[in-house]
């Protein structure tokens, strides 16, 4: 994911505040995950349903490939992608950290 | 478990587009409203000013100094997303009159002003502000995301909570079926204000929802979309089932999908073989009392089914 401004640099506290856009990427929600989605690269048909229904922008095409992968910096492990995948190409496995 | 599965990681090889609803937001895993925000930004694009009521979507997207939004965004207080949007629209019209060159975009017609509020913020506490915005005819699209209770403060009932749901302010028990009212018909109420475009949509059909957002933004005057967005935490279901439950709410007729133009119903998503409401109820913790106590269950399910059937008939919902 492209880098955005670090919102915590030069932090000021005022009444009525302005934050820069697209800065929540500083918050890596992947640490919340208990289950992780794993792709079966042969079964994936590249339809993009997982991307369409991921609330966290974490299911995306893998560069130069015809299958999808998961952004483990942000994926919360909700399991929606595995549920909507038409070919059952995604398995949710308990993550060992 | 094989270590291949544990080790698989494509994080650094993914193609991201221009996202205006960003990762890192703090919505719970599987949050339905978070998906609604994603679809709204995809349909509206970056020439958009969002005014947002207090509620889950505000709290999860803008803890200072972060913002999940790639659009302009204003949060003020709980009940006034509609008033803030009306003020923004009036200000742009005035700037336009005084200096047509002041905007990066061609003129204020190319600018989308979208107010977003939850069911509590919209149908209850911000209702007066919404009514004023509609009645004065501001060129604003108001989108109510409906997760059927006040979730951010811990699942209090709202006028969108369905009959029979147990919430912290309508707890089920020996003497109580849970919430004892049916969902308030916001679409008709808004249409009665003279709004030229009103629609309902569900996050289970993002294409339909996004088309309605695009269509609404082309129309002058006040527009309203009621979008259905399940909350795994407040309803008590497995986070993987968010889309499934949104779809079942449509297929059972609990949440009819339709459009109203100039006060008339102009399209209805017809349903073939409408499913009984149990199919939707049984997956949710907030209705589990209806399946435990036979007598209570029968009364509750029957009453809800009757309300759905009557509405389906009024709307001509069955194919
Ligand atoms: C005037 C006022 N009353 C109450 C609150 C507390 N409050 C903050 S968010 C919220 C619930 C919002 O419910 P809803 O609009 O349905 O959005 P959700 O949290 O479900 O997304 C409440 C009651 C407040 N901030 N301001
Ligand atoms: S939904 Fe399944 S088949 Fe479609 S792109 Fe995602 S993983 Fe591949
Ligand atoms: S598990 Fe949930 S958060 Fe993770 S990629 Fe799938 S849909 Fe997105
Ligand atoms: S409580 Fe519900 S609506 Fe609120 S962030 Fe969590 S899942 Fe989303
Ligand atoms: Mg709500």
UniProtKB/TrEMBL annotation, chain A:
Q: Does the keyword DNA-binding apply?
A: no
MF-aspect GO terms? 4 iron, 4 sulfur cluster binding; electron transfer activity; iron ion binding; oxidoreductase activity, acting on the aldehyde or oxo group of donors, iron-sulfur protein as acceptor
Pfam families found in the cross-reference section:
Fer4_21
Q: Which cofactor does it need?
A: [4Fe-4S] cluster
Query: Key word Iron present in the record?
Result: yes
Residues of the 4Fe-4S ferredoxin-type domain: 35-64, 66-95
Per UniProt, which keywords does this protein have? 4Fe-4S, Electron transport, Iron, Iron-sulfur, Metal-binding, Repeat, Transport
Q: What organism is this sequence from?
A: Halapricum hydrolyticum
Quaternary state and interactors: Heterotetramer of one alpha, one beta, one delta and one gamma chain.
Xref: InterPro entries: 3Fe4S_ferredoxin (IPR001080), 4Fe4S_Fe-S-bd (IPR017896), 4Fe4S_Fe_S_CS (IPR017900), PorD_KorD (IPR011898)
Lineage, uppermost ranks: Archaea, Methanobacteriati, Methanobacteriota, Stenosarchaea group, Halobacteria
The protein's job, in short, is:
Ferredoxins are iron-sulfur proteins that transfer electrons in a wide variety of metabolic reactions.
Sorted alphabetically, which SUPFAM superfamilies does this protein's record hold? 4Fe-4S ferredoxins
Q: What is this protein called?
A: Ferredoxin
From TrEMBL, chain B:
**UniProt key word Oxidoreductase:** yes
Q: Where is this region: Disordered?
A: 157-181
Please describe the quaternary structure of this protein: Heterotetramer of one alpha, one beta, one delta and one gamma chain.
Query: What keywords are assigned to this protein?
Result: Oxidoreductase, Pyruvate
InterPro entries named in the record: PorB-like (IPR051479), THDP-binding (IPR029061), TPP_enzyme_TPP-bd (IPR011766)
Which protein, by its recorded name, is this? Pyruvate synthase subunit PorB
Q: Which SUPFAM superfamilies does this UniProt record tie to the protein?
A: Thiamin diphosphate-binding fold (THDP-binding)
Give the organism the record lists: Halapricum hydrolyticum
Q: Which residues form the Thiamine pyrophosphate enzyme TPP-binding domain?
A: 54-227
Record's keyword annotation contains Cytoplasm: no
> What Pfam families does UniProt report for this protein, alphabetically?
TPP_enzyme_C
Q: What is its EC number?
A: 1.2.7.1
Enzyme class, first EC level, given as a word: oxidoreductase
Polar residues compositional bias: what residue ranges? 157-171
Q: What is the gene called?
A: porB
One MF annotation (Gene Ontology) recorded for this entry: thiamine pyrophosphate binding
């Amino acid at each position: 994911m492209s880098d955005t401004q670090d919102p915590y640099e030069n932090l000021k506290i005022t009444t009525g505040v302005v934050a820069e856009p697209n800065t929540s990427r500083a918050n890596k929600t992947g640490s919340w995950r208990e289950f992780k989605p794993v792709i079966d690269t042969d079964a994936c048909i590249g339809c993009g349903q997982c991307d369409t229904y991921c609330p966290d922008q974490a299911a995306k095409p893998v560069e130069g490939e015809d299958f999808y992968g998961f952004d483990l910096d942000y994926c919360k492990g909700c399991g929606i992608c595995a549920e909507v995948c038409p070919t059952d190409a995604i398995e949710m496995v308990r993550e060992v950290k | 478990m094989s270590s291949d599965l544990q080790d698989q990681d494509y994080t650094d090889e993914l193609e991201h587009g221009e996202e205006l609803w960003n990762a890192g937001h703090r919505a719970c895993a599987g949050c339905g409203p978070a998906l609604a925000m994603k679809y709204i930004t995809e349909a509206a694009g970056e020439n958009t000013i969002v005014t947002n009521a207090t509620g889950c979507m505000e709290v999860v997207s803008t803890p200072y100094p972060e913002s999940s939004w790639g659009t302009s965004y204003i949060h003020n207080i709980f009940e006034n997303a509609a008033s803030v949007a009306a003020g923004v629209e009036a200000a742009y019209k005035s700037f336009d009159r005084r200096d047509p060159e002041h905007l990066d975009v061609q003129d204020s017609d190319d600018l989308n002003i979208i107010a977003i509020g939850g069911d509590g913020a919209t149908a209850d506490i911000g209702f007066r502000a919404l009514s004023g915005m509609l009645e004065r005819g501001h060129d604003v699209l108001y989108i109510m995301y409906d997760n059927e209770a006040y979730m951010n403060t811990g699942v209090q009932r709202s006028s969108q909570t369905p009959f029979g749901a147990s919430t912290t302010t309508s707890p089920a028990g020996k003497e109580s079926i849970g919430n004892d009212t049916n969902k308030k018909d916001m679409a008709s109420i808004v249409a009665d204000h003279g709004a030229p475009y009103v629609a309902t949509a569900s996050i289970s059909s993002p294409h339909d929802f996004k088309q309605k957002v695009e269509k609404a933004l082309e129309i002058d005057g006040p527009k309203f979309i009621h979008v259905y967005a399940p909350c795994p935490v407040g309803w008590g279901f497995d986070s993987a089932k968010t889309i499934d439950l949104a779809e079942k709410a449509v297929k059972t007729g609990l949440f009819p999908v339709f459009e109203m133009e100039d006060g008339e119903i102009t399209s209805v998503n017809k349903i073939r073989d409408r499913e009984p409401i149990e199919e939707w109820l049984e997956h949710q913790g907030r209705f589990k009392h209806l399946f435990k106590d036979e007598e209570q269950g029968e009364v509750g399910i029957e009453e809800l089914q009757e309300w759905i059937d009557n509405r389906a008939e009024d709307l001509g919902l069955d194919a």
